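Teaching note: in complex prediction, the entire set of molecules is handled at once rather than each chain in isolation. The prompt given to students was simply: 'Predict the structure of this complex.' The entities are:
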Amino acid sequence: MKVRQLTFRLLQVYADVVRTGSITATANRLHLTQPTVSQQLKRLREIVGEPIVRQEDSRVVPTEVGQALYQLSQDLLSRADVFSQYLDEYNRGGRGHFSIGLVNTAQYVLPRLLGPFGQANPQVDVTVEIGNRQQMLNRFERHEDDLYVFSHPPSDDAVMAAPFLSNPLVVVGPENNRWANINDLTMEALKEERFLLREPGSATRHTFDAWLYSAGIELHSTQQIASNEAIRLAVASGMGLAVLSRHVVADSPKGVQELPLQGFPLKSRWHFVVRRERRLPPAAYRFLSFVQGVLALEFNETEGELAVAELLRTLDTERR
Amino acid sequence: MKVRQLTFRLLQVYADVVRTGSITATANRLHLTQPTVSQQLKRLREIVGEPIVRQEDSRVVPTEVGQALYQLSQDLLSRADVFSQYLDEYNRGGRGHFSIGLVNTAQYVLPRLLGPFGQANPQVDVTVEIGNRQQMLNRFERHEDDLYVFSHPPSDDAVMAAPFLSNPLVVVGPENNRWANINDLTMEALKEERFLLREPGSATRHTFDAWLYSAGIELHSTQQIASNEAIRLAVASGMGLAVLSRHVVADSPKGVQELPLQGFPLKSRWHFVVRRERRLPPAAYRFLSFVQGVLALEFNETEGELAVAELLRTLDTERR
DNA sequence: TTACACCATAGATAATCATCTATGACTATA
DNA sequence: TATAGTCATAGATGATTATCTATGGTGTAA
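The expected output is the structure of the full assembly:
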């Protein structure tokens, strides 16, 4: 058999001829003329190298080889069809894979979005990458993921960012600390305290530093700790105060307490970040839609919803 | 996906590109130029409606969709390949089906050929049809079988016949009958006996009638019985004498005995009969070859072997 | 025996395919 | 920064394909 020349079209036509038992009938069904179908059969026969049908009592019936070929056709065509359905589902985003890179703090909230999304889309497979800002920037540079969440989007022309969720930064101290109930507490009053800070380059640190600078305050004692979790534990054990995302604290508030500091919480927001030129996997697109749908309702983030809607719109226009 | 336009050639090329990870390498392997392969990919991509490969570190790697497509390709190609192998095997005659129509008497010998053939060719499926001469002629007229065994081939221009096995007709009587040990026994001596005969039209009957006619003998008492087996039993129970194929007697000799009649056994032969215009299934051809191979050795039928060899030769030249 | 239904073949044509050569862009390496 | 290797695109061409209309053969059913 000359497999090279075999076409799905031929198999389709052939299968229909076997089913109807008539060349003319197939021609009508497929909106072709009878000679066209005759010739397709002839060509298929040449490809196979063996008679595949014969005339019998005014019906066209497959030969022994023809029957085997018919089964093959059914098999191949249905497999192609399954693939076609997979493609549709993939394009609808209901199936497939995407990867999302999260900056550390975001790992405390994203599960609240990814979880329900995963429930609703069991066929979608999400890879979550987590790292500090620098690590994520590296991944971003190397195009390693489809979607990122940053507090401060990388400044890159090829980037689209949508701030979707506020990330309030609060000052926390150990549980039942002495400032907890003071009104009009200011940073001025705390500047002698030791502050446990994330590394420079982390968004939390950057935001806090900027605020301190603009407020003209300099801290006396600081210690650098590279993980939100470690900082939280250190605060709980009385090593000092810290600035953390309120989400970090909300996630497991044991042993720490937010201080009612004036000017706080500092406002900051997480952004979805995608590359302009990268074709977003439909599943990732679907995730963004999903998020857009729940932001206002479940997170009271009307602004975020708008930003994501805008992002989706842009993606739509850029797509294909 | 535009399944209509999908070609096995495209899948072959694509699969190779995925395997090698290089368009140039595939071009060389398939004796094409690099742009040709590039364009094939492009076309496949258009058919699928989705990017299927991307460049990554000087390698061509499939996208997510591409991977699914690759699996599909493998699957489809290997199925086509299996079919191709089936075709080869079918053409070699080692696989497939044929039907053979036997005239009654032949059923006593043909198993000795069909049995070993079936053993040697377990993938070949044989349908054996059995009937009296008239029934077989009807089947023959209606082209119902691929191959026939007749004692007297139908006289038809469209027929090829090869006498392959002698079918000696003998006169039998009950065991230990009074003629058994007489020398120079002639039909003349027996003509007062009752003869149990097959129906007119049966080959055995026809041969015997012809012999009687040429010998100028008329039987006094006859009875017609339509089955060799029934005749054998009737003879055994003393109802009369009969003319039967020696093979019938040899098959189950209980209760009957061959008479040493002058001029007997009558010579007759079985013929393989095929229609000229009918394309013989390879399996049937293989059966004939098989028979040709054993005739001289196992049946001492040198003439038969030659006749079958001649038949095979003719089939060869007429084939395709 | 005449119609009719069905299929095959011939001949024509526009589209598409399979290829090639030439060339340009990009990337990794010497 | 040359250089070599890998792809993509453009343009050309002969072969093949998908189709059609027209016509002729064959067998079945009035």
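Point out the following to students. The radius of gyration of chain B is 31 Å. Residues 5, 7, 9, 32-33, 35-36, 39-40, 43, 55, 58 of chain B lie near DNA strand C (CB under 10 Å from a C1').
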